[in-house]
């Protein structure tokens, strides 16, 4: 499986490597979980993608996040299970098959249920695994031996058990209720499958005449065709305009049906005219008013969206065609008052993509409140499950509070057929709303129940409808582990540990699972719910099929490799739950951000090659624990263990993006750019053997640790390098995926040392930057003067001066503070003659002073005064001349360390409180450098002037696309910034 060290390829090939290890992991069942093994359980059930689907960027993002968590906890020694599977997606599969039949000129009814389902299973066998195979390409560490499908035998058994149990408890019932009906799929849809869209529509005003001929009321509606099913008109009982009309009747136009005027506080007096038409069979609010006031319920719609016989002359017309025709008829009858433009919200079917119709229908329902209230108890009393980020807790809670009974029946054939059998012999061989039924776990059990109730001659027919897909998905966390049987998997891995999912299915799925789990298991199905954000396109917009702005993850995998895409998606997360933006060039199908991750992989690969080429064929185990013999060894070990702490803390708190960034900075910066460069001289053949071995030990130790740290994020490349580094034999089943995750050693962490090394690295980086700014040739060595008033900084720089010289190509390094301190002390020869001379001069002045003082002393009162003055002056002169004479000496004395002459041309920079000065005389052509900078400044300023001209032109700003104008503004800002930098560089040369 592995190459020898000497044969490690010079270039990393992600495609060969990734395919190899994906095959190895799966064939050897590396990720197969065993409930009998020790270790605290860590279990994740995959959010099951639709079997009809194909991999999109959301799948890739979510799978990458989960895999980081699962691989990390597996390496932490936990008994880990990530269980994969897919959802049967009733509506999606049903729609797809009916579309195929339509192309063949056939219908579902003509084909029959049995043959239709045969086609569905055939399609599942041939194409249903597309999404699963694509997930395999992501290298997800799932236990494929436990793969589940919501229609497989075990899960179907769980669904029947749940339905029958809820029915026996009175929590499932069959009844007539107003449901959301999708005419496109001809099925009921749940509230969470309804998408609200704002549309530009109309508000039609009609006059409904009072039956007694005393006048009329004016109503307004956005759905005029539904007036054919009106059974009343409602006003607010507190509305003074209409309260006197309550109890009277109206004659419904067209239908000539007498309908009452009712008073109901639900009516908003400010909407329209304050009078609203009441259609109980086709509006949720009207449905409630109809029940309160005992109004008739008249259904005017067929299930395909056409009007039925109750619509009179409009029977058979499509609902939208009928809308136009009804308005025309009302206008002809003289009752149309006006038509207003009106922007309002219309509910659309998430699957059918057409406006839904509230439809009175006999369906199966779950009484949601007992189950929702149980889930609320867990949340309020135990904060279970715990949401990350915490803000989603309120969203989840609010949803549980507002839930209504759940319609779980769907008028489809693909799915879990409802386990209810109707005694059709009691209703003329047909299933009607009044046909009696029995609920059972099997046809045999149903037969026995029906015989006992209806006699030996009873004829049974199973309910043709299937259950809402979310019913089976709600059981997923425990049905996949064997429930209702008490299996070892269920005992070990349930409740699961973490659910990773998008915020958009908190209502669809998360709430369903918590309600079902609370009811059937008495536990919440998972401890944590990690809600991730969306992957936005290059413009920061949500990807959608409608916009056509999706980015194909497989295309990027084919171009850059799986690890590069995975790492990019995780690294871009700037906080739990945040959306990420993926850079993408649609013209070239390229991503600069994924390319950067591919470059990171190459960086790691090349660093690993260098390390292994310098280990003399030894593995980290053979080299043993590192013995840090030098400052740089202790620094990199401290940084490594610091990063271990940082990474584990981030991952444990779902800071996956921050963890990825930290590892990236350590590998690319500390290890590759600094430590490897620092030890190169110690690896040379002639280097000190003890120092060389210490460098090898540290290199091997840190490299292996890096591979373990990075493995959850980039599993393929790390596995390949680790296998080669540790020289695993071909027949070995050892894998990096099952190694222990690094543990930090507090004894090796030295924050003070890291702080000191930061100063050294900053100094080296500053010198390099100054060299680049001054166009110093790469191979040329320079003299550098470091100036600081801090003894601590001077000590650090002195201790690390060999590193500064090696990595910054410094020929001579001087320290201004050191120069000052040494030149303050004069040499012995200087002290001998200068001190003697000064003492003699001092004595002469003293003698003259005494003579003068003696003469003056004869004058009354003056003597004492001048004695004091003379004595003071003598003391001052001697002190000034002798004690502080060395302050003047540096001007005459030669410096111990060479100083930079004041007249010499230099370039300077600052790191912290250290000033870095590089003399340029003799190193670069100053005049040529000035000319080059002048030329660059002129070019950039000309570009900036051109951009200012474009942006000051109203025609360009007003007519050009927004992104083009913004691009010009960004380019101007960049040009101005470049000009400023260039001018500063030139200024240092003047």
Automatic annotation (TrEMBL):
Q: Where is this motif: 'HIGH' region?
A: 49-59
**Annotated function:** Catalyzes the attachment of valine to tRNA(Val). As ValRS can inadvertently accommodate and process structurally similar amino acids such as threonine, to avoid such errors, it has a 'posttransfer' editing activity that hydrolyzes mischarged Thr-tRNA(Val) in a tRNA-dependent manner.
* Gene Ontology MF terms: aminoacyl-tRNA deacylase activity; ATP binding; valine-tRNA ligase activity
Q: Which GO terms describe its biological process?
A: valyl-tRNA aminoacylation
Q: Which InterPro entries match?
A: aa-tRNA-synth_I_CS (IPR001412), aa-tRNA-synth_Ia (IPR002300), Anticodon_Ia_Val (IPR033705), CAAD_dom (IPR025564), M/V/L/I-tRNA-synth_anticd-bd (IPR013155), Rossmann-like_a/b/a_fold (IPR014729), tRNA-bd_arm (IPR010978), tRNAsynth_Ia_anticodon-bd (IPR009080)
Start and end residues of each Cyanobacterial aminoacyl-tRNA synthetase CAAD domain: 827-888
Which chemical reaction does it catalyze?
tRNA(Val) + L-valine + ATP = L-valyl-tRNA(Val) + AMP + diphosphate
One Pfam family, short name = CAAD
How this chain sits in the membrane, per its record, is: Multi-pass membrane protein
Is Aminoacyl-tRNA synthetase tagged as a keyword?
A: yes
Per the similarity annotation, which family is this?
Answer: Belongs to the class-I aminoacyl-tRNA synthetase family. ValS type 1 subfamily.
**Which superkingdom does the taxonomy of this entry point to?**
Bacteria
SUPFAM superfamilies noted in UniProt: Anticodon-binding domain of a subclass of class I aminoacyl-tRNA synthetases (SSF47323), Nucleotidylyl transferase (SSF52374), tRNA-binding arm (SSF46589), ValRS/IleRS/LeuRS editing domain (SSF50677)
Gene3D superfamilies, per this entry?
A: HUPs, Isoleucyl-tRNA Synthetase, Domain 1, Valyl-tRNA synthetase, C-terminal domain, Valyl/Leucyl/Isoleucyl-tRNA synthetase, editing domain
Quaternary structure, from the entry: Monomer.
Tell where it localizes. Answer: Cytoplasm; Membrane
**Do you know which PANTHER family this protein is assigned to?**
VALINE--TRNA LIGASE, CHLOROPLASTIC_MITOCHONDRIAL 2, VALYL-TRNA SYNTHETASES
Residues of the signal sequence? Answer: none
Q: What class of enzyme is it?
A: ligase
Mind listing the UniProt keywords for this protein, alphabetically?
Aminoacyl-tRNA synthetase, ATP-binding, Coiled coil, Cytoplasm, Ligase, Nucleotide-binding, Protein biosynthesis
Species per Swiss-Prot/TrEMBL record: Anabaenopsis circularis NIES-21
Q: Which GO terms describe its cellular component?
A: cytosol; membrane
Give the gene that encodes this protein: valS
Q: What is this protein called?
A: Valine--tRNA ligase
Where in this chain does the record put each Valyl-tRNA synthetase tRNA-binding arm domain?
925-989
